[in-house]
Amino acid sequence: MIPNITQGDRMAGLLIYLAGPGRANEHEEPHLVAGDSALMAWHDDSELNRDAALDIANALDRAWQFYKTEVDGGHVFHCSLSLAAEEGQFTDQQWGAIANDFMKDMDFTEDGGKAPARWVAVRHGLSKNGNDHIHIVASMVRDDGTKWNSWKSKYKSQQIARALEKKYGLTELGTVRAERGFTPAEQAKAARHGLPEVERHSLARKVRTCATASTDEAEFVRRARMEGLLVRPRYAAGRTDVVTGYSVAVRPRKGERAVWFGGNSLGRDLALPKLRGAWESTPNSATAAVSEWNAAARNRRPVNPGRETEQPSAELWTKYAHDVSALREKLATTPHGDHVAWAQAARETSAAFGAWSRRIEPTPGPLANAARELSKSAQLRRYPSRSTVALPSARGATMILLAATSKSDRAAYALLFRQLAQTARVIHDMHQATDDLRRVRGLAAAVTAASKIVEASATEHTITAQPTTIEALREQHPGASEEALRARLIAERSRGGSPIPTTLTRPEMTLQQAGSVRPEQPHQNHHPKPGIER
Fold it and tell me: Which of 58, 168, 172, 374 to pair with 232, CA 20 to 30 A apart?
């Protein structure tokens, strides 16, 4: 939440402006959400007009006019409190509570033992940038004629805002993480086309997924184009062999123009220099990358298709599931203050959920939302030079999910999803330990919903047969590990089934052709941890 304090001497002019249409006609239904008790006894939350604004201004100015108290810089206190666009909107009641807390802590009320100063909080819709906000207007002359102390008021307002962010579950701007916002125009376009999310979010998810699945820059360019994105490089001045950045866009509808987004505007972790830090870098790979960027800029075929066109072997499913497990185990001993390490883990886990969404969600749903919630933990305001902990890489999980087919083993799906969900829970627990309540709530809801949608999609493809036991599976697969056997059992039990992508199942196949699945009773020794259902 961002406080912005100004000082002036025209109380009536300010109130008339706040109750008016605004400079760009952005003010809608201006009304009061809070104020001092004396003023609120005479005014309710009805829509303000010019006459009401003048009446309120006179009430606020009464002490100043009566005592003639001189205040350097003007006696009118004005502070806007605004949310980031991605925070959404508060109700009038929530804003009223925030305004009351803010003015109490800023020492405008009688709670501090001094005479109160008159004030109101006005709300009049979103700003032109899509931010929900209120305006607080107050007299800096108290009811006894003394002056409100403005010393270090701007610094104090920032400290109060940090405390209110924590109290009301908002993104704490003093923390190390921050997500990119979006504009009202993007919101309006999504609503106009009936889209479940703004283009910026869908592009960020696809770019993060493609970047994580790739081992070098050239592969990233090819994967992004395979996902249907328009891609163009940003060259160094006067060069076509040095790429310094990139932009991507969704293919426009007929009659519309493409809207381009730079990597850094999609996410703080998606700027090209940040992405390059995770890829192989050799003279040959740099040359290959420039060739693919040039082909993308000219809308030509990829120069040298690579592993993005290949089908990974079945053995890789277990390997990459174990990689995710190794990442999860390492995170258990990673200091919460190592922000680079946690951001890396969140980015890779987010990308894997994004790839899973790509496979089973016709339109962005719970899996896409889980990817977005995790991506918020992947974006740092400032990136230290390096991490103090070397984490195992879980990038292979994203690659194999993008390459999944209907022939992929259902037990492998179950094993990989379980490891990804557990890794997301470890990240959730880190935020819980550091009192990042907004991330805690977002991740808890997102991972739980994602688990349910995977379970539901699997149940649709499950039929009843004789129960299967660990012992029976051990006889059938003598070389399999205990973890792989448990995953296969989960895949074959009647409740929950296996997370098979529904979009990859042939519609003409019957259940008998697809094969039967044998149920097993759910494990009894299952104790979910508070916060996220396991």
Answer: 374
